[in-house]
Inverse folding.
């Protein structure tokens, strides 16, 4: 399967033959994978019926039952032989036994790579790790330096039971077009056994292809002329519009870019980074200019980069990309593509690429279920892999400065054929800041067009947007041949907007399979000249305009209202994920619109109560206030759903709703009420629910705010001591409790809790960074400078910890070095920080100030 999968993926250095019990490989002969070029891979398989004995020092160093070399001794001997000519190798010990979490060296296994390095190299000669290294080296006849070289290439693929092996194998088989039932896996295994018994211990692709043809004659592996799996070239869009009617579209080239020079420099640095593959998330509210900025970047680098926006029908092409030149892929509307996006990032993070690939992700917020799915926070080994390719922490795009606003107003007015005085420009800028205090570029255009209208300027943001909608509707009415056509135009726009846009093929499929009411929608070949169906299927853009258009249609009466409701129910049936994403956008942009409830009610609460409930609960944080009237409807609807469908999933979603309401109250500063709401939510939870542990952590915070240390520590302990709690929520509770110990001066206890965080196998980089940097400070308080520096070094060595965090850790170390009189060493760290293009606010400025102080003696100001 390794050979077939590499060929299907277009690997740059594919497996070309597979060996079983190969001569000359010592005890690493069980499975050998020969690649086109080294490194080849050699594995020892150690499966046991009774797998209770874990893999640790005793297991690895114990002589064989006949008195021969130990497991590790045999691996060391094979490694010496295989690398005698200097060729690189990959080694693996594959077993269903678990790793010994108490072993000084084995416990340092990196869950991302399954290697003991670099963790095994840490600690001095007298530390537990140092003494274990010496014991391993002596037992294998290696020098310590040689042992560390071996551990750099020896994977410990432990805890790999047969069912998991079967599931992984079945997934590989299905991915390349083979059947993957148990009988198919058994047939493949039997074929290999027969080959080995007949003396064929190395099987090349010719033999493997013949086996596939014999075992599964009906299967079709799609191959190119060169023998690799076929794939379409990656097509990327560079949208371009220039009509006056499309001034608000991000792709309109008639409106030249104003400002954003610094942001473009940051994005160019992203492209120029050294890694073969990396991704970066940019966030910002509707109208902040994310898509326009990405388009400007694509246009600017198009001479040397294959760059553009990825359409949904090209998603599989990205996963299988074999780039011949640098490639920049922009993924917009990421929330509704989260499952695919996570798979794509994970796959690309493991690929050998012949040219750089960058994925720029655009979305409004970096929170909620979509972001957890992308990062795979419940599959931490894969999450580590994805995070290791993250270029930087998410970057939020802000508004424009006043001078930039003035310039953009002039550009829009010029395009509209208007001449403005300086007073007019200032009036429009004032109008903008009234309707949009965030100063988003989209609303500079809206404010200018609103001001240029012959009527008085609108009183607020939505009034200005409605004026633009009315203008578009008026143009439609003038061009439509009859009232039926005009209604169809509005209906297609409504449906497409609620789905975030839809292709003509998807529309045709929808009409064929979902059978909308007769007369509601036009057939796919209908003519609305001069408006094309393709244009209508994009939906009404920008999003914030389209959302208001749909909400306002729901506020009408008669046929218009009835049609709007039917269209939203149809959108839900057509694509639940796309519709949920639309509802979340609408709730974020128009949280006070009275028809928001109608969007939530359009889901099929009878057939899909769990999905509908999740949609409703996901918008609670977006409502931003605990007294929002929509909350009453949400809780009432949840109660009805639970009564009609007494399933645990709805009970847990309801508890999550209570948790999120309590969070709103806490953010409003009402600690007492939040504490009571958390307590009520806990009463509705079952012991193993994940939300229960989140509630305990947050209630613990409220106890601290209420000066009830004992209750806070009890809540944190309840999370920490529950075996079924995820490592992530336990890490949060441990860090919370350690903060309390720190504040009380109980440094030993704080260090113990930070260490416990680091001992958890599956925590996110943020939890580990917090634990390491705060443990380092605790060591420093205790006077243990060596351990403090070791923790900073660990931060700098971790691939998935963000550069911004590493620079903050360097600043901490530089301050300690300066305090200790090691000015030259401190300056080295400070210059690295200053040279970095990625720093938290204030870190670079503090570093410059500290450098000046060390070089000139100028006094330091307080941080």
């Amino acid at each position: 399967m390794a050979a077939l999968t590499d060929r299907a993926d277009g690997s740059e250095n594919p497996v070309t033959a597979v060996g079983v019990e190969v001569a000359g490989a010592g005890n690493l002969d069980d499975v050998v994978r020969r690649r086109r070029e080294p490194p080849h891979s050699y594995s020892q398989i150690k499966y046991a019926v009774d797998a209770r004995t874990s893999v640790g020092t005793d297991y690895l160093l114990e002589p064989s039952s006949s008195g021969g070399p130990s497991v590790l001794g045999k691996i060391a001997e094979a490694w010496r032989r295989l690398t005698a000519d200097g060729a690189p190798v990959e080694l693996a010990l594959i077993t269903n036994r678990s790793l010994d979490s108490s072993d000084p060296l084995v416990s340092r296994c990196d869950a991302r790579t399954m290697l003991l390095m670099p963790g095994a190299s840490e600690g001095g000669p007298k530390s537990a790790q140092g003494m274990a290294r010496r014991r391993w080296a002596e037992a294998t006849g290696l020098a310590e330096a040689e042992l560390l070289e071996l551990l750099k290439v020896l994977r410990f693929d432990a805890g790999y039971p047969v069912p998991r092996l079967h599931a992984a194998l079945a997934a590989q088989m299905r991915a390349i077009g083979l059947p993957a039932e148990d009988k198919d896996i058994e047939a493949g295994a039997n074929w290999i056994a027969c080959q080995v018994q007949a003396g064929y211990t190395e099987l090349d692709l010719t033999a493997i292809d013949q086996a596939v043809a014999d075992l599964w004659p009906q299967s079709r592996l799609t191959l190119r002329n060169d023998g690799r799996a076929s794939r379409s070239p990656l097509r990327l869009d560079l949208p371009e519009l220039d009509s006056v009617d499309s001034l608000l579209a991000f792709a309109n080239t008639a409106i030249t870019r104003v400002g954003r020079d610094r942001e473009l420099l940051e994005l160019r640095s992203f492209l120029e980074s050294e890694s073969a593959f990396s991704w970066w998330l940019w966030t910002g509210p509707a109208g902040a200019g994310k898509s326009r900025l990405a388009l400007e970047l694509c246009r600017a680098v198009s001479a040397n980069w294959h760059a553009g926006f990825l359409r949904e029908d090209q998603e599989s092409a990205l996963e299988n990309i074999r780039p011949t030149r640098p490639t920049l892929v922009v993924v917009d509307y990421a929330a509704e593509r989260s499952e695919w996006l996570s798979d794509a990032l994970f796959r690309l993070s493991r690929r050998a690429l012949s040219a750089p690939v960058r994925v720029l992700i655009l979305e409004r917020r970096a929170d909620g279920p979509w972001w957890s799915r992308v990062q795979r926070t419940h599959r931490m080994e894969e999450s580590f892999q994805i995070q290791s390719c993250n270029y930087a922490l998410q970057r939020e795009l802000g508004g424009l400065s006043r001078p930039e606003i003035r310039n953009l107003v002039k550009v829009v007015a010029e395009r509209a054929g208007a001449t403005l005085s300086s007073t007019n420009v200032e009036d429009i800028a004032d109008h903008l800041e009234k309707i949009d205090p965030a100063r988003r570029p989209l609303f500079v255009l809206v404010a200018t067009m609103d001001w240029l209208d012959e009527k008085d300027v609108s009183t607020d943001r939505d009034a200005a947007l409605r004026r633009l909608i009315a203008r578009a509707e008026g143009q439609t009415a003038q061009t439509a041949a009859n009232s039926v056509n005009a209604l169809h135009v509005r209906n297609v726009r409504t449906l497409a907007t609620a789905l975030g846009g839809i292709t003509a093929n998807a529309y045709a499929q929808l009409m064929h399979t979902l059978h909308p009411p007769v007369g509601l929608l036009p057939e796919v070949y209908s003519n609305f000249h001069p408006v094309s169906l393709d244009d209508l299927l994009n939906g009404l853009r920008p999003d914030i305009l389209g959302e208001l258009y749909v909400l306002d249609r729901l506020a009408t009466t008669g046929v218009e209202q009835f049609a709007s409701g039917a269209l939203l129910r149809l959108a839900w049936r057509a694509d639940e994920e796309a519709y949920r994403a639309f509802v979340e956008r609408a709730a974020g942009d128009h949280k006070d619109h009275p028809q928001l409830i109608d969007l939530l009610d359009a889901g099929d609460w009878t057939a899909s109560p769990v999905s509908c409930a999740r949609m409703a609960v996901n918008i609670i944080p977006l409502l931003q206030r605990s007294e929002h009237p929509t909350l009453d409807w949400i809780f009432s609807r949840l109660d009805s759903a639970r009564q009609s469908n007494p399933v645990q999933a709805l009970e847990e979603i309801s508890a999550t709703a209570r948790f999120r309401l309590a969070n709103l109250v806490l953010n409003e500063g009402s600690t007492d009420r939040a504490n009571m709401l958390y307590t009520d939510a806990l009463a509705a939870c079952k012991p193993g629910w994940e939300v229960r542990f989140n509630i305990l952590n947050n209630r613990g915070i409220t106890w601290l705010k209420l000066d009830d240390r004992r209750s806070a520590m009890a809540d944190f302990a309840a999370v920490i001591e529950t075996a079924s709690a995820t490592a992530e929520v336990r890490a949060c509770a441990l860090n919370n409790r350690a903060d309390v110990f720190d504040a009380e001066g109980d440094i030993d206890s704080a260090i113990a809790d930070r260490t416990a965080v680091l001992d958890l196998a599956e925590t996110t980089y943020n939890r580990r960074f917090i634990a390491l940097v705060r443990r380092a400070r605790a060591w420093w308080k205790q006077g243990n400078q060596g351990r403090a520096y070791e923790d900073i070094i660990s931060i700098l060595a971790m691939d998935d910890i963000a550069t911004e965090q590493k620079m903050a850790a360097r600043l901490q170390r530089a301050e300690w070095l300066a305090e200790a009189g090691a000015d030259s060493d401190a300056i080295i760290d400070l210059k690295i920080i200053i040279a970095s293009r990625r720093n938290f606010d204030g870190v670079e400025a503090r570093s410059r100030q500290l450098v000046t102080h060390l070089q000139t003696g100028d006094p330091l100001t307080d941080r």
